[in-house]
Specification:
By secondary structure, the chain is α+β, with helices and mostly antiparallel strands. The protein is built from 6 helices and 13 strands. The strands form 2 sheets. An 8-stranded antiparallel beta barrel has the order 3-5-6-8-9-10-12-13. It has a two-stranded antiparallel sheet with strand order 1-2. A hairpin with a 4-residue loop joins strand 8 and strand 9. The chain is elongated, with a radius of gyration of 28 Å. The C terminus is likely disordered.
Length: 248
């Protein structure tokens, strides 16, 4: 007769345990609901890729390089998005739109990639009629390199640049990436350009271009959190003026 009360007590204990387990909160998943109803990711702050929605960049060749080109009879002209070379010579600068890309925080510096419009620049040896067409610019912000296609061939690394600090480059109010930096030509690119033009204008390690970038970022992203900007996030564009003066 004692077995029945014990069995009943065991059933009640098991039922109580099951009800408690059902009421307990589930383990957190990779994505949890935010207070406003949107999905909140558990990716670490600073590892998020923020999409680039457009923008523009201005490339200018330094005066010393332009003087060396002119002395050897090399003129500069812009190439439009259809691949046509302008009949008018340029003063050594060009403006390119930004088609797409993404920005990340890579070790406290700007990372990601910028892909520019298919326009470009042509270097024309007036004496020999040789032309170096440089198009399809891509900026690898994580590696600090600028690549392009030379004469519709294989892509080459044109030059390198110093990657700026992420806090100094992101304008959180305008949702923009702003960069102001110089591009140094690589030895391989210098050799390819000289061969294409039949000149000795370019030398590895020498100044190639100065670039000002204003890239529009996805305005729906919480930039301080996504890029781990901390308290230094507000307005960008205050890069060292000395860097600009060295390439002006």
């Amino acid at each position: 007769m004692r077995a029945r009360p014990r069995a009943t007590a065991a059933v009640l204990a098991l039922t109580t345990a099951l009800l408690a387990a059902a009421a307990a909160p589930a383990c957190p998943s990779a994505a949890t609901a935010a207070s406003d109803g949107r999905a909140a990711t558990t990716r670490l702050a600073g590892n998020t890729e923020v999409p680039v929605r457009g923008g523009s960049a201005r490339f200018n060749a330094p005066p010393a390089l332009l003087a060396a080109l002119r002395a050897r009879g090399v003129a500069v002209a812009e190439i439009d998005t259809h691949g046509q070379i302008s009949p008018h010579y340029s003063t050594g600068g060009m403006s390119l739109g930004i088609r797409s890309g993404a920005v990340t925080n890579s070790g406290g510096k700007v990372g990601g990639e910028l892909r520019f419009t298919r326009a470009g620049i042509a270097l024309i040896n007036i004496k020999t009629k040789k032309v170096a067409r440089v198009t399809g610019f891509v900026g690898n912000l994580s590696q600090g390199t600028l690549s392009a296609v030379l004469n519709r061939g294989a892509r080459i690394t044109l030059g390198t640049f110093t990657r700026p600090r992420i806090n100094a480059s992101i304008d959180t109010e305008a949702a923009a990436l702003r960069m102001n930096t110089g591009i140094t030509v690589t030895a391989a690119a210098a050799a390819r350009l000289n061969a294409a033009l039949g000149t000795t204008c370019f030398r590895g390690g020498g100044p190639l271009l100065h670039v000002r970038i204003d890239a529009s970022l996805d305005p729906s992203v919480d930039l301080p959190t996504a890029l781990n900007l901390g308290h230094g996030a507000h307005r960008a564009g205050h890069e060292d003026q000395e860097a600009h003066d060295a390439w002006a």
